[in-house]
Amino acid sequence: MLEKEVISTVQAPAALGSYSQAIKVGNLLFVSGQMGLDPKTGSFTGAIEAQTRMALNNIKEILQAGKSSLEDVAKVNIYLKNIADFAKVNAIYSEFFTSAYPARCCVEVANLPKDALIEIEAIAICE
Predict the structure, then answer these.
(1) Residue range 13-30, pLDDT digits in tens
(2) Measured between alpha carbons, how far is 62 from 68 in angstroms, rounded to an integer?
(3) What is the number of domains present in the chain?
(4) Which domain covers residue 34, as residue numbers?
(5) What is the phi/psi pair of residue 53, to 5°?
């Protein structure tokens, strides 16, 4: 039977509710949705480009804590407050994922916690 292990790091924002930054099950790492919150200040980092970059940096830090990396990401879900931001988000996303792109979906949602502009979750292979 597979066991689950809680993964967390101070290099990414603490969970805002009753969830973990990530859960490791077997060789899979499930990273909870990350917004563009600066882990040091707990504040948003700016417009959609800055929030996207910070959300992806937060994911990168959580992956590292779970003995994984961006190269090991298999699936990404992106939730946007405004789908018109898709091109801007995709440009930043392409800086983080440069080959063997993960499977991905991107949807517009009515609202996000703390009035965020973006939230990104990921599933990755890990040790």
Answers:
(1) 998 889 999 999 999 999
(2) 8
(3) 1
(4) 4-125
(5) -60, -45
The DSSP code for 37 is B
**C-alpha pair distances (Å), 17 with each of 39, 65, 95, 126:** 15, 20, 30, 25
Is the entire prediction scored with pTM above 0.85?
Answer: yes
Q: Which among 9, 6, 107 is positioned nearest to 57, based on CA atoms?
A: 9
Is residue 104 exposed (0-12), middle (13-18) or buried (19+ Cβ within 10 Å)?
A: middle
- Domain containing 32 — which CATH number? 3.30.1330.40
* CB contact at 8 A, 74 and 63: no
Q: Which residues are catalytic?
A: 106
